[in-house]
Amino acid sequence: MNLQPSSTQRLAGDQSLPLSLPHRLATGLRSPPPPRPSNISFASSSLLHQRSLSLLRRSSPPPLLAYSGDKDFAAAESPSPAKALRRLLKSPGIHQGPACFDALSAKLVESAGFSFCFTSGFSISAARVGLPDTGLISYGEMVEQGRLITEAVSIPVIGDGDNGYGNALNVKRTVKGYIRAGFAGIILEDQVSPKACGHTQGRKTVSREEAVMRIKAAVDARKESGSDIVIVARSDSCQAISFDESLWRSRAFADAGADVLFIDALTSREEMKAFCEIAPQVPKMANMLEGGGKSPILNLLELEEIGYKIVAYPLSLLGVSIQAMKDALVAIKGGRIPPPGSMPSFEEIKEILGFNNYYEEEKRYATSKSSSGQLSSQRVSNRVYDIEKRTQDNAEQRDRSPEGPVVEVITPDVYNNSGADGSRDPFSGIWARTLRVKITGKDGFEKLDVRIPDRQNNCSRDLLADFVIVFSLVFISLDCRD
Q: Is 372 exposed, middle or buried (0-12, 13-18, 19+ CB in 10 A)?
């Protein structure tokens, strides 16, 4: 029995997870695929799906993984992420959901063939702000990171809503925000604020009444939004109070309208089995905390036998990323680069990020691209003409106007002060002048026109020269400031 439906099955026609809008547009499909015949086994159906998808891929270009078009139009073509997740919960078997922490890790989960994924508050806090999962990251940061994640993939994403970031009213706002961000589901826990990772020390929970009221508020927010988001009710009371308390709360959460139940940090198979026996009509979620949490790590067959429907792997992607980056940094610091086997080639990285799909899409709009190129060229030509015209006008202006102030010294009369009879004045050794100083500014306007001294006064050469220098400097300074 195939316990892990692949993304190829989903894209080829699995009714539980219908084709994404980009793939419909690429392949020309206009309606949901027909339901799978009941007499075909899951494994043989998978093979048919894979062959069908192979034919589709050869006949049409693949869709962009990061498609994020008009959500209203997408809703008309395919069910909402929440409805897709609900179909998955009703389908046979147990389903794996690795936890992502950003858009790239979410795309890798989808490309690996998983039918859904989680966001990990632990990993997002580490990757986005570099801080421990102790309630330091805010609602706004979490919902924004979630929006980027859901826009990057077409598979349903269950978001970590922590404790709803406050009381019942805060929970309502949180649920509505996660709905707008595109989440298919939201996990809400009964911890106090600030909350922390369920597998760490010092867990504390709110009262029974407040814990149940949070779930009721979440259900009300879903109704008010006209949404079908899946509400996963988590209890940390097993560590904070007792195992029996966590069972009581889980029953109450189911009665309040929770769609999935989750008790974190169960410590044995027996506790897991007892948990899965309560409210049997409500699916149960397991959390396999890699690297040494409080819960035993079980394989899929064991978890399914116990009674779980979905299982999360919260730290795998973050953990291996940390180790790979540390190894790469050691290599770089030692004057080397990471060995080829430790990282994808550049071509593989481009394929993962969607470069090749982008180039194929670009070819489909070659005509539009050419038109826009012509318009761009025309704009550039107009811009160049404007610059050249402005430069020419400036040059003509400079030709018409002097570069700086022009100082003209005009001395029309030079004479000696002798009497009519030829006798000399006591000051006959001093030259008498009428000195005219004219200053024209760089704008072409006359700034000064003065005579030094007038004809009735006498000045020595040195004094006249001083007058010229002083007046010139003063008016040149004024003209420059203008």
A: exposed
User: What is the structure's pLDDT at 47?
Assistant: 39
Size (the chain), residues: 482
CB 26 within 8 A of CB 323: no
Pair 118, 230: CB distance under 8 Å: no
SS3 (DSSP) at 97: strand
Whether this prediction's pTM lies above 0.70 is answered by: no
Mind listing the pLDDT tens digit for each residue in 432-448? 455 666 676 666 666 66
Measured torsion, CA atoms of residues 217, 223, 229, 231, in degrees rounded to the nearest 10 = 30
Task: Give the strands of the sheet with 432-440, arranged side by side.
Answer: 406-415, 432-440, 446-452
User: How far is 181 from 175, CA to CA, in rounded Å?
Assistant: 10
CB 172 within 8 A of CB 220: yes
Strand partners, 410: 436
DSSP string for residues in 34-62: PPPPTTS-HHHHHHHHHHHHHHHHHHSPP
Q: Within 13 Å, how many C-alpha atoms sit on residue 150's CB side?
A: 25
Tell me the residue type at 370: S
**Phi then psi dihedrals of residue 212, to 5 deg:** -70, -40
> What letter would DSSP give residue 293?
-
Give the three-state DSSP class for 481: helix
H helices of 226-365, where?
A: 237-240, 243-256, 269-277, 300-306, 316-333, 346-353, 355-364
Report how far residue 225's alpha carbon sits from residue 219's, in angstroms, rounded to the nearest whole number.
10
Angle at 241 between CA 240 and CA 246, to 5 degrees: 95
